[in-house]
Design a protein that fits this description.
This protein is α/β, with parallel strands linked by helices and 401 residues long. It has eight helices and 21 strands. The protein folds into three domains: 73 residues, OB fold (Dihydrolipoamide Acetyltransferase, E2P), CATH 2.40.50.140; 196 residues, Rossmann fold, CATH 3.40.50.150; 81 residues, no CATH class.
Amino acid sequence: MASTKGARWVVGDIFEATVEKIAHGGHFIVRHEGAVFFVRHAIAGEKCRVVVTSTGSSFNRADVVEVLVPSHDRVVAPCEYAHRDGCGGCDFQHISMARQRALKAEVICEQFARIAKMDVSVTVEEAGSALHWRTRSNATTNSTGELGFLASRSHRVVPVKECIICVEHMNIPELATRSWKGSVRVEVATSSMGERSIALAPTQGEDRARLTEGNQILHEIVAGKTLEVSHDSFWQSHVDAPTVLTDAVLEYAQIKNGEHVLDLYGGVGLFTAVMVDLVGVDGSIDLIEGSKSATSDANRNFASNANVRIITGDVAKHLLRIKSADVVILDPPREGAGKVAVHEISRLKPRAIVYVACDPAALARDTAYFSASRYTLDKIRAFDLFPMTHHVECVALFLPA
């Protein structure tokens, strides 16, 4: 991209331009008078008036002020807070659902072409409702105690009366009527059994959130099993994600009786829950996870399964102690597994590696690492488990070269 160093642009400047393609991160690219802008609330192909919101040495940021020539895929945002001065949580509410998924597919393909140097073809699959899907949410209060969400790239709190992407039994309208302390983070978690817990923490500092309502442990039903999930433990946000992702993982892994499986970054045991019966008493599963809260949950969840071993700690370091595995499942955090972990997974010579990823850029980078370790990308699926946002979930199958 062209450098904008020394450009004349300042925050507040307005200009007209035609919007180019989608960029990773939910913005669209605009090039104007030698400068590059990442623009919010646009759609590729539109002609818009945009306002500069920040400047930098290599690119600037901007937002749409007025749409002069709209895309056929532009729609009225269903949420009253989804606009330039509103909540920063949803990037794509102004775009039709079909185009949202097409744009996410473009991003996946672009990241693989740029980072992994390979062409992939993928369709982002619809995976449930576009509204009322989010089961966990972090809200914030302003200085006067009004509940809301942060504006884009800002510490400014936008007070809300509702959040239409949150599940209904989170009951944001009721929470919005409460008198909260000023400047606190409000962590709300719900479960498939209708439970709700709330924990509070200061917006400044590293203090751990303190439970103020509900139970510390929620319960999720997966494959007929009840899993305990502490408020501090990770759980998939979309209400349908556990079913969608476990189905995809099992389709790719084809687990057989008697196999040794690694469930890396395994959390409370979502994937272990659907694999434990498949490996049988003659097989085994090692679940490795860095979060002590999650592995504490996992130990309770699989206390009656002698063939499941729960390990707390750094995944890459613990892999050094393992000699072989038939199948490896990994669901790393957004930054991906990384070169060391990929090398150690490949050293075990599994017959299949199934990678669950919430960031296509990290997946593309790790795909290149797997290729260098003689494992090739065989199949990939993508799921729209974060509708109305730019995020997308992928499941990839790697096989020995």
